[in-house]
């Protein structure tokens, strides 16, 4: 079948690779595909065959999830059998190419693929050493080769039997909000990141992890193969909800509200003090009071 519409639609897709993640694709398959595009008589899309990434895909599955002494029930364990990272010994341009998310999704509509192979696109940072650049990269970003497997253990506190293990490749240098987007894009449930509740908490090594913001995984000391526990108050296997940490935002809003209140208080107090004789001023100075207010130490006023 010769399909000019296929070629037109393909060439309208966004090839720009932005910060977050992208896909690796077998150079052998991609070169064959591009040679079909050069056919002056049209593209016979039925002859190209499935995208074959076996030669570039890391199939390591040795890391087992365990939390609080409980093994993850087999029926609740999933390892993303289609989401992998690159083999360590493959070479860019020789074994694989990097394509945008939009191009990958379009090609999969027609050809399917044996393995989805993820690469992480990060900002070029001062301490970043294991990376490379390629064509179509957005300004200031690179492909980071420092990648490890991470196991997310999702557990409902009142029912350990509902625990679920999710194994994904991760990059310590990717921004955490970008990594969060990646996780939910990869989930079979296709969670909409704009819909969430705040009933869940994420922990690793006994510390609460904020689940949003511009921090990198490296800054939160997530830089090696480990597991993170997500404790959810209301969770079912078929309904995974986004966990998001809003405590900092709430604190910021409360602080802003308090500062507004303090400013009003100081204005009223200053007006009242100005109306009193000097010998009656037994309170602290305005400056001292303001310092106490800024410290939220009302008991010292």
From TrEMBL:
* Protein name stated in the entry: DUSP domain-containing protein
Give every DUSP domain span.
1-124
Q: Please name the Pfam families in this protein's record.
A: DUSP
The molecular function terms in GO held by this entry are: cysteine-type deubiquitinase activity
Q: Which organism is it from?
A: Paramecium tetraurelia
This protein's superkingdom? Eukaryota
For this protein, the record's InterPro entries field holds: DUSP-like_sf (IPR035927), Pept_C19_DUSP (IPR006615)
């Amino acid at each position: 079948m010769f399909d000019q519409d296929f070629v037109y639609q393909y060439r309208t897709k966004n090839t720009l690779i932005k910060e977050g993640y992208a896909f690796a694709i077998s150079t052998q398959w991609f070169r064959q595909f591009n040679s079909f595009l050069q056919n002056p008589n049209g593209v016979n899309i039925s002859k190209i065959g499935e995208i074959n990434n076996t030669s570039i895909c890391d199939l390591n599955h040795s890391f087992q999830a365990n939390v609080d002494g409980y093994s993850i029930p087999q029926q609740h364990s999933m390892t993303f059998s289609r989401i992998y990272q690159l083999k360590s010994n493959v070479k860019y341009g020789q074994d694989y190419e990097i394509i945008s998310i939009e191009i990958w999704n379009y090609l999969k509509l027609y050809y399917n693929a044996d393995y989805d192979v993820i690469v992480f696109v990060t900002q070029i940072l001062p301490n970043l050493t294991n990376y490379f650049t390629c064509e179509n990269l957005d300004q200031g970003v690179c492909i980071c080769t420092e990648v490890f497997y991470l196991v997310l253990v999702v557990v409902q506190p009142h029912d350990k039997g509902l625990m679920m293990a999710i194994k994904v490749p991760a990059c310590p240098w990717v921004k955490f909000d970008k990594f969060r987007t990646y996780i939910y894009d990869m989930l079979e449930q296709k969670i909409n990141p704009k819909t969430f509740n705040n009933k869940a908490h994420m922990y690793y090594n006994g510390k609460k992890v904020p689940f949003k913001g511009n921090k990198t995984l490296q800054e939160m000391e997530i830089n090696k193969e480990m597991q993170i526990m997500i404790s959810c108050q209301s969770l079912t296997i078929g309904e995974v909800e986004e966990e998001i940490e809003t405590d900092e935002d709430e604190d910021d809003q409360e602080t802003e509200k308090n500062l507004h209140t303090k400013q009003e208080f100081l204005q009223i107090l200053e007006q009242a003090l100005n109306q009193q004789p000097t010998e009656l001023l037994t309170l602290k100075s305005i400056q001292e009071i303001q310092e106490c207010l800024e410290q939220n130490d009302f008991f010292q006023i």
